[in-house]
Write a structure and sequence with these properties.
Blueprint lengths: L9 H13 L5 H30 L1 H5 L3 H30 L1 H4 L3 H6 L3 H23 L1 H21 L5 H5 L1 H12 L6 H14 L4 H9 L2 H20 L11
Helix pairs in contact: 1-2, 2-4, 2-7, 4-7, 4-10, 7-8, 8-13
Length: 247
């Protein structure tokens, strides 16, 4: 299955090829323009589109956020757009790339088609943006965000791992939960009942548990960290707000 975009300009291919060869990223020169386009697009969402859309959808709440909270809010909006886009595109390639379907398991991991390279390039572009944002706003996002960005960029740049599609599906839920915590939506009762109902009625299959426990140890460590942050956020719901922490 071919890449839906035009080939990378020759000058970009020639400029990035020495670095790509040194890092053994053999297909990076063919998709460097998509990495750059994704990087620029997500920065545009973060700095322009998210503030405009948020001010229009929830003007009172968004404009009332302190500057540090606005940065976090815009990061969540950007990550939600990215996770929705990359999940949809990856699933489309999985279902429609006949060349990929005819590959053995080795080819599906280390093989290459233009469409697979497109997914990988767009994902790498986002995590490159995430890395830059985590460095620039380190005082707001913290060391956890920086470490997560580094590990995710290394994974998406070196190998096509389509099972991470299912990991990306959790991102919109986390971002919506952040919106709820910011008082734009109050889904406390609904989300609480949904969580209790899910934990009572649903069970994970053993194979899924084995896959998740055996892969991406570092990212799973950060899942524990994010969970502790979510618990702390839920505890804050039952405590009086402290405006001094947001200044």
């Amino acid at each position: 299955m071919l890449d839906i975009f035009q080939p990378a300009p020759f000058y970009l291919v020639r400029a990035i090829k020495p670095l790509a060869d040194f890092l053994s990223l053999w297909t990076l020169p063919y998709h460097i323009h998509e990495v750059i386009a994704a990087l620029v697009s997500y920065q545009l969402i973060f700095s322009v589109l998210s503030p405009l859309a948020s001010s229009w959808i929830a003007p009172k709440t968004y404009r009332g956020l302190p500057p540090r909270r606005r940065i976090s809010w815009n990061v969540h909006v950007t990550s939600m757009v990215q996770s929705t886009l990359i999940t949809t595109l990856a699933l489309y390639v999985i279902w429609n790339d006949e060349e990929r379907k005819n590959m053995e398991w080795v080819g599906r991991i280390w093989g290459y088609t233009g469409a697979m390279g497109l997914v990988q390039g767009l994902a790498a572009g986002y995590f490159l943006w995430d890395l830059i944002a985590s460095i620039i706003h380190f005082n707001v996002l913290g060391p956890g965000s920086l470490a997560h960005a580094i590990s995710a960029l290394l994974v998406t740049s070196s190998v096509c791992i389509y099972r991470d599609v299912w990991t990306a599906l959790q991102t919109p839920t986390i971002d919506l939960k952040y919106a709820s915590d910011s008082s734009i939506f109050d889904y406390m009762m609904a989300t609480g009942l949904n969580g209790v109902s899910y934990s009572h009625n649903m069970q994970l299959p053993l194979w899924l548990v084995i896959v998740y426990l055996g892969s991406n140890t570092l990212l799973n460590f950060f899942n524990v960290y994010w969970f502790s942050q979510m618990v702390q956020a839920m505890r804050k719901r039952f405590q009086p707000p402290n405006p001094a922490k947001d200044r």
